[in-house]
UniProtKB/TrEMBL annotation:
Transmembrane segments: 28-54, 74-96, 116-133, 145-165, 177-200, 220-238, 250-273
Name by which UniProt lists this protein: DUF2306 domain-containing protein
Organism: Inhella proteolytica
UniProt KW keywords: Membrane, Transmembrane, Transmembrane helix
Superkingdom: Bacteria
InterPro entries, per the entry: DUF2306_membrane (IPR018750)
Amino acid sequence: MSHVFAAAAPPLSPPAGLPRRLLDVSAALWLALALGGQLLFAAYLVAAYLLPTLQGRLESWNLKLPKGYTPGDAWGNALVGLHLLFALLILVGGALQLLPPLRRARPALHRGIGRAYLIAAATLAVGGLLLVWTRPALGGLGQHLGISLNALLMLAFAGLAWRAARARRIEAHRAWALRLFLAVSGVWFFRLGLPLWLMWHGKPVGFDPKTFDGPFLTTLAFAQTLLPLAVFELLRAARRSARPAFHGAVALLLAALVLLTAAGLFGAFHMLWSPPL
């Protein structure tokens, strides 16, 4: 699993002992945990939205998604439904794309899924922009801007990954594809960050749970995209560095993020996902 991040930032110098190995192991652990957590989120989407939709119970969308289903609004309901469907497909597709055995054993399938992933990501981004500005539910302007930034970066990364692939710049393509994966995962990071905050404080702090607006949620709306990308660039810099101290520091950061991600998954499962599952 460490090969995924390694391919995006090949080292300029040989591995430097234990700190470098810890760096690769920490990155692999986080990625494995993230993929498992995203598949859990995908299972939640199936249980909470896909199955009720197939049963004709569209009103059940509103149990977890304010204004998810609005009687008489065929266009808006279709947009929400397609957005949820593409979110489900992209979660599963992203997990498949990041499996090294699939890339090695079935390169043609890997390329096919990759093309579909890029198209789905762009579609998801455009749909998200339409929803947040034409059918706003809860949340304030700050959150809408954070979501819009996420969508615009998804479009940019998808285009850059596509262009690099067509030019056969494989390392650049993988780097842009991983940035896209992290941006696409923004909604998942948000759903980990909120339970972490609530578990830490024991109650809503920094936002109004009725309006779902406040400085914390505005900050989280931007952090869901920018923080993972910043950590990824730090990891790439560490892999290119020959300094063991740098390797060790980033490895410790990633180890801490493994623990935070596990805690966030625990909170998200018990607070958000477990009832439908």
